[in-house]
Amino acid sequence: MNNNRTAWTMLLPAIGMVTLFIVVPFLMSVYFSFTDQRLLVNPNVPTEFIGGRNYLRLFEDGAFQNAFFRTATFAILVVPLQSAMGLAAAMLINSKLPMRNAFRTIYFLPTVISMVVVAVIWSSLYQTEGFFNSAVGALSFGTVPPIDWLNNEYLAMPSLVLLSCWQGFPFQMIIYLAGLQGINKETYEAAQCEGATRWQEFVHVTMPGLRNTHILVGMTTTIFAMKLFTQVQLLTQGGPRDVTDTMVRLIYMTGFKRGEVGKGAAASVIFFILVLVISYIQRKLVKEDRAIS
Amino acid sequence: MNTPRESLLLKIIAITVAVFVLAPLFLMFATAFKGDEQQILRDFGNANAFWVSPWNMSLENFRDVLSNETFPILKYMRNSAIIVVCIVVIGIFVNSLAAFALARMKFTGRNWLVLFIITLIIVPSESVAIPLLLMMTKVGWVDTLRAQIVPFIAHPFSIFLFYQFFSVIPKDLDEAAYVDGASRWRIYWSVIMPLSLPTVATVAILQSLEYWNAYLWPTMVARSSEVRPVSLALAQFFGTPPPVWGDVMAFSVLMSLPILVIYLAFQRFFIQSAIGSGIKG
Amino acid sequence: MMKMTRRAALVGASVLATASMTTLTTTAFAADPIKVWTHGGKADGERGQLKTMIEAWNAANPAMPAVLEEQPEGAYNDQVQAAAASGSLPDLLDFDGPNYANYAWSGFIQPLDGLVSKEALADMIPSLIAQGTYAPDGKIYGLGMGDSGLALWSRKSLLEKAGVRIPKGVDDAWTMAEFEDALAKLQKVEGITHALDVKLNYGQGEWYTYGFSPIVQSFGGDLIDRTTWKAEGAINGKAAVEAMTHFQSWITAGYVVPKADGDDSFYGKKTSAISFVGHWMWGAHSKALGDDLILVPMPNWGGKHVTGNGGWCWGISKTSTQAENAGKLLNFLLSTKNVATLMNSAGGVPGVKSAAAEVALYKEGGPLNLYLAQLNAGMGYPRPAHPAYPTITASFAKAVADIVDGKPVQDSLNVAAKAIDQNISDNKGYPPFGKM
Predict the structure, then answer these.
(1) Which of A51, A86, A191, B267 lies most in the core, judged by the most C-beta atoms within 10 Å?
(2) Which residue pairs from C237-243 have beta carbons closer than 8 angstroms and sit at least 24 positions apart in sequence?
(3) Does B241 touch chain C if contact means CB atoms closer than 8 Å?
(4) Which pLDDT tens digit goes with each residue over B129-170?
(5) How far apart are CA C292 and CA B65, in angstroms?
(6) In chain C, what residues touch B229 (CB-CB under 8 Å)?
(7) What is the pTM of this model?
(8) Is the separation of the CB atoms in C73 and C41 below 8 Å?
């Protein structure tokens, strides 16, 4: 009994705060999504129940479909690329490379840099007269004219992907490094005794050994990708032609910028459901994987 | 063992990656130290963008930024420091205490609570931002440091990290202490926490980075200069035309410096603990 | 544990130490000071001037001192909204043009009639009185120290070299055909990579509405019908589509400086020939180009000769506990001397008649006299002062951004029309607006 009381006393601050600041707002989100709640309630137009109008509006003008599609595009590009970079860097650091620790220190740097700073730096690289255009010009012997990277319908998203990968890959690197160090050294020695090539070693020892790490990396990176906002808001504001308009930006624009809390809440609810679905699918994958192995 | 050809290849790849990682940072530092804005714009188009000759280094941009009264950067850095220190210090106690109860004590509803915390990890803060904003508006917390601190102290993922670590500490340790008559509080403070320094560090580092760099939430609640954190200030400084690259980069350097210094000073520990959290994750 | 705590404490202490080195300019006041907010840019002379004025006010009125706080321009509107929500608006604040209608409707600000002296009101130029008058009650909620000027900047030598006619005044302004012909000619001049800079680098925001809605209005379209308050048919009508199709054709022809080219293609790199921007670039332009700089009247794009006007104006919050003092301060700011000082440095059109003679730039023959001539010719076309303005401007700016990116004009404007009308109907027509 005493145990119960002590335990709950210890839990109270944390549980109280997560309830107040996560659970309650979430329930409010669901409630607001069926009203025309405004950020600033005007005495002339009181808040009313409006049924599913917010949801209808979100889909009616295609805003949500677009935001979902763009966010998914980002995730599909960024997850494999960033994971591959992270794995490659982790393998480098885990190898017999001289000065491994120095390289590890360097590789980890981008992650400690704020995304706002990263966006500022990369936007200078993407200028019309910036470094990337000079490089493209030089490599093509001047045949390719300067490209407006962030304002090009087809290149804006890949440009954001590149800078996001630069900033994010060290995180994946660290998780993979842990995964690599968790693989039994003897397995490698056995493979070498059997005369396996480096590639065979990679395919038959490293990759299977990292199965659970892959899932962990894939899961966290996907969810991280779904929250894409800062880079977009600073560099493209959702443009050109909405190709970089993401779900979080949609929530921000409707709920905060336009003060349409009801509609913003509806977008938040759908966003939450999508994140939940992804988490669920990936958890299922982990379980199946474990069943197979 | 690696063949000489392999190790040469490894070195080349490693250096290429290092160049890719470092180039943007060099660009930031080099530009910040260039006094002539026109020169900066010219240099952006070639490799000079990443370099500043030590003889031509100028502190003018830093002087400009530090004396800018519309964007008092030191005040913003102070705001961010207060926010981060409060969240991290209070957060460590609140979260580890909850995790201790969950991991090392038996009580009614424990399993249910563990599940509850794990479920909450999935809830993205972005999806509760709008109602939370309305809540802050209702209680008059908009435009305060409180609004940027209090909602983020209790952190399900941190609780989870502590929970995982606490779960693998051998039970006989605190059983022994308990038999000796130590209270649960005493066991938490004198037995478990001293063993958990790597996790404390992991949580502190993860949280510090998250809130030093926070952007979405401050955009919504930090109105006046008095409470504006540095990342939001940089975004606004960068977004106010016309862009003065030298000043913007100097601002970026000033903002990144504290974190870089802390990282370089504690990096071994920093990465070790991050690896630790990776294994358990 | 001990070790860690000490380390953490050291780090914390050093961070705080750095921060505390900030020199905080806190001055103790006897009375509650009048709180003043203004939008701050990064590099305008306006800021310093305003500070000097407030200092002068404080010296002369120690009994009712004022403190000035500058807020970054980019998010100024959000900040005002947030402050209004938490009931912490300052006493006196400035806001960009027609946004005041929404503030008045939402009850953030109060009428200035009675707070500002009759003499000061009588001295205001008509375009500013028109801008600040809120239709439902006919009262004035916002007063600016200056009006804005919108025309084209160019270089005399370039126009001569390209063989483009230089208009003498408002009456012989270029037509659309002449303007487009000039673009074609200027594009071919050596060193010019883009004939026209329309400041796309400002990004999707108020500039897009302020700068480009006059083109729509010149063709007979508008952002919204000013009597029925319906956007459908106005913002996406035939006239608007025709206007914006011209606009888009300049982009597709490669005349327009792209966003990523930065701010200085006209006055720094000198790679663009015509700069379509407001009076606020006078400082940068005149400094870089000297006597070669020329102000070309706003073209008569589509038949109705109009230009943008209106700008930042002052208002007093409803929650202000010392509205009368704030009104006195506003009187002081609107004095001949202060308006003249500000306009001489910032370059806007003086907002009070009595100051016009003292602002050299705007005197007969002065380099910016053209702005005054445009307004005197009745070309000023204020943006719609309707509570839905935030939605109207955001939707139009979005449509412009899409049009710049190559989306079909009609589609882009249809989206804007729908968004605006939906917003108005969702707010029940913004009563009492709908009932007028």
Answers:
(1) A86
(2) C239/C302, C240/C216, C240/C413, C241/C409, C241/C410, C241/C413, C242/C302, C243/C215, C243/C216, C243/C218, C243/C219, C243/C301, C243/C302
(3) yes
(4) 999 998 998 888 888 999 999 999 999 989 998 998 899 888
(5) 33
(6) none
(7) 0.85
(8) yes
